[in-house]
């Protein structure tokens, strides 16, 4: 279905920058001769509908502080700097109100589920003691989503002794809330739920790790607005976008997430914590252990100390600064209005314009393009490039580089082709960087029937560079210059 959809459409995108790159590599077979990073798969990062997922308490505060105009400023980053002008005590009061309502809702759900399962009242009180209104307010970490295995809900439990030590500090209580469902046929995902349930009932985690049954939209809204930290631990690079973290961020909830999906773009250092994915030649078990240790390090050394650094204010000013940064950075970027505008500008408008071009004059353009594609497809296997002369070893600053390329067109005309030169170099890590590119100009046909293309170009960058020359078919009505997936290199 993916191959059919890609070949039957002309504009394609992933749903975050990282996902766009992953999709480009995965679907490179559709454009077999094109480098994956240049094929037609782009990206539009997902966004959430602010009017739906921003808590009413925050909307009311914005109305009081900013007036109603804020609803028309959702894509203006500079406007949202005014979040920093909200007094810390007012900001904290709203969050605590949402957190209290969330804990109350969770307590009711958890009490109901334990009674249904036959637990006694004493057991229920022990399992819900951190949710009581008179309990010392804990740092609440939320994990709520599909229990697919790649999302690694059990990552924190790789070192249960260390986790138990972290959660059971009486001066700095921490509460872990888990919610979610697995597909009926996803048995590994169901096993993850079973694993967390077993941990939640073990003595060292009773009342500290809570698995909430019946995950639904109402519970999801409570969690993304009421927890202090939103935890996301997917296996890189399998998280396409991850909009739950965006819903949390626009409500001032701080993300602690693997730098995958939207968080690869959203993380800025002052608005949450990023878990660097461990790439390279290590197996999954080792990577899981390494990333689990990193999450626990961040929790123990940064998250918990920052949250409980309350001093005389009764709250942590540093935590509020990070929460405000989370909201300020997410609100104007990761919203549905920006997403829809990008789709309209970069995809739907282009698609509509292209369709009009092809359909004009009783589809004359469409028929011409189809004939041209058939011609290129039949001829391309015979297209070859030759150097017209040796490439000089060096070009001084201010001088021009003169190159000639001879093309065996196999029946194609000069107008059917683009021949270009890429100027590349390597960075300190060995990554190839494109410095410049310049097109050749068609200059007739030589005595052997080869198409002659010439380049006269003054390089714009200095230093050691690699030249690569390529040719690909071109027609003015193509939706993307590499649409045919055809390319030859010299």
From TrEMBL:
One of its GO terms (biological process) is carbohydrate metabolic process. It comes from the Bacteria. One of its GO terms (molecular function) is glycogen phosphorylase activity. Transmembrane segments: none annotated. Belongs to the glycogen phosphorylase family. This is DUF3417 domain-containing protein. It comes from Acidiferrobacter thiooxydans.
């Amino acid at each position: 279905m993916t191959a059919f959809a890609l070949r039957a459409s002309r504009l394609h995108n992933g749903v975050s920058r990282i996902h766009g790159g992953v999709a480009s590599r995965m679907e490179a077979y559709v454009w077999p001769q094109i480098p994956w990073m240049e094929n037609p798969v782009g990206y539009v990062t997902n966004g959430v509908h602010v009017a739906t997922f921003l808590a009413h308490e925050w909307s009311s505060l914005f109305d009081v502080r900013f007036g109603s105009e804020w609803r028309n400023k959702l894509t203006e980053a500079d406007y949202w700097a005014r979040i920093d002008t909200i007094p810390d005590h007012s900001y904290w009061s709203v969050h605590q109100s949402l957190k209290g309502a969330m804990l109350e809702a969770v307590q009711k759900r958890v009490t109901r589920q334990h009674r249904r399962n036959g637990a006694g009242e004493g057991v229920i009180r022990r399992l819900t003691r951190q949710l009581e209104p008179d309990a010392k307010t804990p740092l609440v970490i939320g994990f709520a989503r599909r229990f697919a295995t790649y999302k690694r809900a059990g990552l924190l439990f790789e070192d249960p002794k260390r986790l138990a030590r972290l959660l059971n500090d009486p001066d700095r209580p921490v509460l872990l809330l888990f919610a979610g469902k697995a597909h009926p046929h996803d048995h590994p995902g169901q096993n993850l739920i079973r694993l967390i349930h077993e941990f939640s009932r073990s003595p060292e985690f009773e009342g500290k790790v809570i698995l909430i049954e019946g995950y639904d939209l109402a519970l999801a809204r409570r969690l993304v607005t009421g927890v202090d930290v939103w935890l996301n631990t997917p296996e890189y690079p399998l998280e396409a976008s991850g909009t739950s973290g965006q819903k949390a961020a626009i409500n001032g909830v701080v993300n602690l997430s693997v730098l995958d999906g939207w968080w690869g773009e959203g993380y800025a250092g002052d608005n949450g914590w990023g878990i660097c994915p461990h790439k390279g030649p290590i197996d999954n078990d080792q990577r899981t252990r390494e990333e689990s240790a990193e999450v626990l390090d961040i929790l123990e050394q940064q998250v918990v100390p920052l949250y409980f650094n309350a001093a005389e204010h009764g709250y942590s000013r540093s935590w509020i600064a990070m929460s405000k940064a989370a909201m300020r950075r997410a609100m104007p970027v990761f919203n549905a209005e920006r997403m829809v505008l990008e789709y309209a500008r970069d995809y739907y408008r282009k698609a509509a314009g292209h369709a009009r071009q092809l359909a004009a004059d009783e589809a004359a353009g469409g028929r011409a393009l189809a004939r041209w594609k058939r011609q290129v497809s039949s001829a391309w296997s015979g297209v070859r490039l030759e150097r017209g002369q040796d490439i000089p070893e060096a070009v001084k600053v201010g001088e021009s580089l003169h190159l000639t390329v001879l093309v065996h067109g196999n029946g194609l005309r000069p107008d059917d082709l683009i021949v270009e030169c890429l100027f590349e170099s390597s960075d300190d890590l060995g990554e190839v960087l494109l410095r410049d590119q310049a097109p050749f100009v068609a200059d007739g046909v030589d005595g052997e029937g080869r198409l002659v293309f010439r380049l006269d170009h003054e390089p714009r960058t200095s230093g050691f560079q690699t030249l690569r020359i390529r040719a690909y078919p071109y027609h003015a009505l193509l939706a993307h210059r590499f649409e045919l997936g055809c390319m030859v290199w010299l």
